[in-house]
Amino acid sequence: MSRIPAVVLDGTVLTVEQVVAVARHGASVTVSEQVRESMAATRAVIEDLADDTRPHYGVSTGFGALARRHIPTERRAQLQLSLVRSHAAGSGPEVETEVVRALQLLRLATLATGRTGARPVVAETYAAMLDARLTPVVHEYGSLGCSGDLAPLAHVALAALGEGQVRDADGALRPAGAALAEAGIDPLVLAEKEGLALINGTDGMLGQLCLALHDLRRLMAAADVAAALSVEALLGSDAPFAADLVALRPHPGQGVSAANLRRMVAGSPLMASHRAVHDDGTPVCTRVQDAYSLRCAPQVHGAARDTVDHAAAVAARELAAAIDNPVVTVDGRVESNGNFHGAPVAYALDFLAIAVADVAGISERRTDRFLDVARNEGLPPFLADDPGVDSGHMIAQYTAAGIVSELKRLAAPASVDSIPSSAMQEDHVSMGWAAARKLRRGVDGLGRVLAIEILTATRALDLRGTETVPAAGTAAVRDLVRSHVAGPGPDRYLAPEIEAVVRLVTDGAVVDAAAAAVGEIG
């Protein structure tokens, strides 16, 4: 297995792919000398404020509703330590390792912009923890998505101080101090403003957006593959996917999805078996109009693709941001601001949850058509071997339906809610962390619903018999599935077969098999 390239923080903007590489695959992180010099220069601005009689938020004042309380010089280091300890107030189950690593990397990236006023050692400590695979324990609840993802980020900062708990590289739960010592990492001792710099950002919700975008690119392609399998196995028509028809409504995602469907079923003998021939020799499908779940697949999948592109644009802008409050400006001012508010990211996360639910919904409708003898074009009821004795895929569809119902609930936006906090100082919040958490659940559900459709459609293709074979693209996917799951026969324990295809969908094997047969699946 090739080594994952290191991510070097050198003043350039991180990409989604780099976030995924560090968060999910353990890529190492390096802070460049240029970044260290930049951080040292802005740190000098903060240190020059030590004797300033004017109040500076987070340097010589309290936080939130306590922002008007002056903090004497000798208490300012304690102020930062108290901030981290008090804000590490999360509750509930542990958040996934990849999410914690993503948010830690993104906070490090903001430190590396030199706009927070933190010392270089703070960034170096975060990079060392990432490289040692020491993952602070972060909890499900604690962020309102305004003033940043406060509690999640505070738990990470607490671990860097040698307090709280971490998971080590083997996943064992360890006291943070002992784990740092074993890795040769000195615990941080915070100076003025550094506690605030470590907890004030949208890094948790942004990290989860980056991970979701990576996964959804793959799942959108898998949705097109699944739809092509269903159109072919249900004896549907590819005529509505014609390039000239699709171009009449020039949404870019729709065009990509339609092209994928055309490639997948191109040259299909099975589809040719239900075409008539005009007097002029032109083939025409005998299906006048298929059901919407077949005919409108490019429109629905394409709209979801365009939503992913919109969210990716939001993520790119957020990855280029330096989010802290206050910030050290390029010309050396220390200014309060509202850039920590998570609304831009929260809206994108909520929008994606809607698209995820709808793509899963149309997939489940295609699965259901296979099981109903009134709609499945001559296939046995529920695709059962001996209907009545066998139930076939009856309950697999129940599973898909249950997931889709859950995804519809998760599509209700989190970002329209706001619960005032901090004695009404923070009187409007984004709930972006909540939007991110439900999107992660939605992405998982979509992969499962698509897997059930693919499992069902490949079974239907086999039940069509060998007289009319599928297209090259769909046959390649069918053959991949058959290498992990047996073909039609009496009822078997179905859950492991579903999980096997879920893995093929989520790890990209389904799309790779299709692309190897027909070219790129965009």
UniProtKB/TrEMBL annotation:
Reaction it catalyzes: L-histidine = trans-urocanate + NH4(+)
Enzyme class at the top of the EC tree: lyase
UniProt xrefs under SUPFAM superfamilies: L-aspartase-like
Keyword field contains Lipid biosynthesis: no
Coiled coil ranges: none
One Pfam entry name: Lyase_aromatic
Similarity comment: family membership: Belongs to the PAL/histidase family.
Keywords: Histidine metabolism, Lyase
Protein name per UniProt: Histidine ammonia-lyase
InterPro entries: Aromatic_Lyase, Fumarase/histidase_N, HutH, L-Aspartase-like, Phe/His_NH3-lyase_AS
Pathway linked to the protein: Amino-acid degradation; L-histidine degradation into L-glutamate; N-formimidoyl-L-glutamate from L-histidine: step 1/3
UniProt key word Transmembrane helix: no
Primary localization: cytoplasm
Location of the protein in the cell: Cytoplasm
This enzyme's EC code(s): 4.3.1.3
Superkingdom of the organism of origin: Bacteria
